[in-house]
Amino acid sequence: MSRPLVVDVHTHVYPPSYMAMLRARKTVPYIHDPASGEPRLIILSSDDDPSIPIDERGRPVDTSYSDINVKLTFMQQHGIDCSVISLANPWLDFLEPAEAQQWAERINNDLEETCAKNNKSTDPDSALPLQGRSTLFAFATLPLSAPSVDIIVNEIKRLKTLPHIRGVIMGTSGLGNGLDDEQLGPVWAALEETQFLLFLHPHYGLPDEAFGGAEVTKRYGHVLPLALGFPLETTIAVTRMLLSRVFDKFPRLQILLAHSGGTLPFLAGRIESCIMHERKFVENGGDVPGPQRSIWEILKTNIFLDAVVYGTAGLKAAVAAGGGTDRLMFGTDHPFFPPLNEGEKEWISVTTNYKAIDATFEGEQDAVAAVLGGNAARILKLE
Amino acid sequence: MSRPLVVDVHTHVYPPSYMAMLRARKTVPYIHDPASGEPRLIILSSDDDPSIPIDERGRPVDTSYSDINVKLTFMQQHGIDCSVISLANPWLDFLEPAEAQQWAERINNDLEETCAKNNKSTDPDSALPLQGRSTLFAFATLPLSAPSVDIIVNEIKRLKTLPHIRGVIMGTSGLGNGLDDEQLGPVWAALEETQFLLFLHPHYGLPDEAFGGAEVTKRYGHVLPLALGFPLETTIAVTRMLLSRVFDKFPRLQILLAHSGGTLPFLAGRIESCIMHERKFVENGGDVPGPQRSIWEILKTNIFLDAVVYGTAGLKAAVAAGGGTDRLMFGTDHPFFPPLNEGEKEWISVTTNYKAIDATFEGEQDAVAAVLGGNAARILKLE
């Protein structure tokens, strides 16, 4: 059997325009250029620690974030035919209201142009199949801090005119009050109407107190916030959407959850059980309406998962929760989790996910092909 | 095939002595007896809300917590042959140092006596097989706030003289600073030496801020703290043990994780990947030693999971992470999650877990029998 198509749905960029914006800032998030060495990205308020010399604060941000050629080389080295690139966190969450619309348009136009230019160079007539050439599509970003929700809705509609945009990426803060905020209604309606996929991605993690305080959190480097805080942030966000009945009110909303749903597939049963046992909800004689549709139904109709979970245990839960293999899509999280030894070309974070897919669907070539790229090509209409 | 043995490893009690202690208290946790109706249990500081009339604060605590006959009836109604009872949270975490030893001894003696008396009544000679009669064993509680760790170690050793004690239940705070506290070394050593199973169970959840603040948390009743906070608390606690190298230093420690590990089976791959990519750890040229054994190895040698996860997605992840079906054990979480309609004798929280086990191991009778009771009988030496 021929090698299946491989599509990476979880791969981030900071376009040069975004890098320039971060360089001009002096508060988190910002980029600082030390006297020597790579620029530093100070992305979280905890990174901006005055006890650390400014030249060592945050993390190095090399060209893999902003130079699309570095990503194309990475794709070739890892057998990836097509990447659906998205702005990395924290997106535009932090912008002043007056700046939001302009920056969203600029960055989305940059993403569109990057995809168009690249795809034209590999196939001027767009007639070749995706397989075997390096093709790019993109998830756009939204001006969530804009002074009016109409500006966000208008940007979603404008994105329909950009041929390489296949959805939008969003964090968990929404307009600043989480994704159960009723003010987001018009945004959900616009996403339903355009049938853009919403790629929901963490950034804020959990408060240090959850891990036992700042001292404990720091003791283990980034492990607790990244390994546990990020997945829980996603799970909390989507559970708040469920509990506030977003999926009842907008039943055609299509969401791709980062990191195989955070922990949603594993906890879905417990969430459903807790809802059924919650006296507060009307069906049980409570005082507010609870969600009308079961979490299992929502997992099978509204939610897609990436396969960025680094093991068969997570993938098996993802498949069982989603009712099959047709809602799961390969991803890498590039340029995050590079090999620690700089000489290594093969990224173990990527090969771990490849191996987990093979091991989970042992001998089921159709399932492997679906997860690696077939699902993404169909769901995102990549052509 | 005959009906398999069913053992419930996750079932809680408040012995009458513990109830009396809570009734004598005026600060959290405490029990308040309203002028009419059932006593109220005020267990969390958030329950002790002065804006709520005292007679309505907290949750009703009926006889299912303290009357062992209610549990025996529940067991008969749900086909459970044997229960390994444990003190419910918050155990003795809150006691003044001087009180801790005395209360631990008293409660553990009460648990022992309850089991002994019951088992003698169903089989005076202890000669019958477990199946078909209602047998009790227990996980004991530890005086964790005692002024010296020796008192805790001595209680563990004393427990070996109580024939129905099969392990100890513990929360995530340890001596007050979490389970990565080096001061806990002698406790881990004593548990290794006695080969008592440590049943690790959540109580504290996550700070409200993790869910978007107290107002958001309350909006959905107990769903966010119970469905997401509890499992994450367990996951964080065991990950801190792993990162602080507890399993390297005490490789024979045997831990049973509540709620199928919280989210550990699902997140194990991500935790392992984050450790491998953490510059702080020595193997990678960092400045502190990282864990020496892989999380997958620890899941297969040190960790047991209950099957209280309410769905096939969670169970499949639990089996995949633990390398098979021989480390997973049925549980109910009784007396929590009773039916909301009081007339119902069948608890949907229990039947959901029964059905999930059947659906996960469809047709594999040996696996079903192992998870329902065979594993517990072997691991806990129930006879």
Automatic annotation (TrEMBL), chains A, B:
<dbReference type="Pfam" id="PF04909">
    <property type="entry name" value="Amidohydro_2"/>
</dbReference>
<comment type="similarity">
    <text>Belongs to the metallo-dependent hydrolases superfamily.</text>
</comment>
<dbReference type="InterPro" id="IPR032465">
    <property type="entry name" value="ACMSD"/>
</dbReference>
<dbReference type="GO" id="GO:0016831">
    <property type="term" value="F:carboxy-lyase activity"/>
</dbReference>
<dbReference type="GO" id="GO:0016787">
    <property type="term" value="F:hydrolase activity"/>
</dbReference>
<feature type="domain" description="Amidohydrolase-related">
    <location>
        <begin position="7"/>
        <end position="382"/>
    </location>
</feature>
<keyword id="KW-0210">Decarboxylase</keyword>
<dbReference type="GO" id="GO:0005829">
    <property type="term" value="C:cytosol"/>
</dbReference>
<dbReference type="InterPro" id="IPR032466">
    <property type="entry name" value="Metal_Hydrolase"/>
</dbReference>
<dbReference type="GO" id="GO:0019748">
    <property type="term" value="P:secondary metabolic process"/>
</dbReference>
<keyword id="KW-0456">Lyase</keyword>
<dbReference type="InterPro" id="IPR006680">
    <property type="entry name" value="Amidohydro-rel"/>
</dbReference>
<protein>
    <submittedName>
        <fullName>Amidohydrolase 2</fullName>
    </submittedName>
</protein>
<keyword id="KW-0378">Hydrolase</keyword>
